[in-house]
Amino acid sequence: MKELFLLRHAKSSWDDPTLGDFDRPLNKRGKEDAPLMGEHLAKLGIKPDLIVASPARRAKKTAKIVAQKLGYDESAIRWVESIYEASPQSLLYLVCSLPEEAKRVMLVGHNPGFTMLANMLGDIAIDNIPTAGVVGIAFDAKSWDDACRSKGHTILFDYPKKLKGER
């Protein structure tokens, strides 16, 4: 059994027009939503064996906040530049090549690639993974190479507004 969690970065700030997209920080809501999602995942008992994240500033901060809430060693996060602006195909390739010893992996990154990947691998249709949203997919597979070539079962789709009861 393999489990993949796709966590979209929390809400970012557009306040500084001189910053490039890669360097945008979290905004106020993002700084509130990232720990909220980390605490929620911790309550569900989700502890990844590996966190792989985009090094873009907003994704990096989200990954660090969530890792801390999950009791995951922040220094063990793997920063993978190709996650930034990745196509669903390149994300799928990344999933295929995940280390076999990691049974539960969390990827932290960006849309539209994450939503497209969730729809490729999961068994429910998702229009959009909101900021700080997470999709969990379980695979009846022994290897990541097998998992990435099959449909998994979507076991989780949560996001801050859902947790707060907002519509």
What would you note in describing this structure?
34% of the residues lie in helices and 19% in strands. It is of the alpha/beta class and 167 residues long. It has a single domain, classed as Rossmann fold. Strand 2, helix 2 and strand 3 form a beta-alpha-beta unit. The mean pLDDT is 96.
Poorly predicted runs? none
Can you write the helix and strand succession as a string?
A: EHEHEHEHEHEH
Largest sheet, order of strands side by side?
3-2-4-1-5-6
Quickly name the level 1 CATH class: Alpha Beta
Number of helices: 6
Structural class: alpha/beta
**Could you please say which CATH topology applies here?**
Rossmann fold
- Termini separation (Å)? 34 Å
Structural shape: globular
Index terms:
single chain, 167 residues, alpha/beta, Rossmann fold, six-stranded mixed β-sheet, 6 helices, globular
Give a brief description.
The protein has helices at residues 28-43, 57-70, 88-96, 113-121, 144-147, 160-163, and strands at residues 2-8, 50-53, 78-79, 104-109, 134-139, 153-158. With 167 residues, it is an alpha/beta fold.
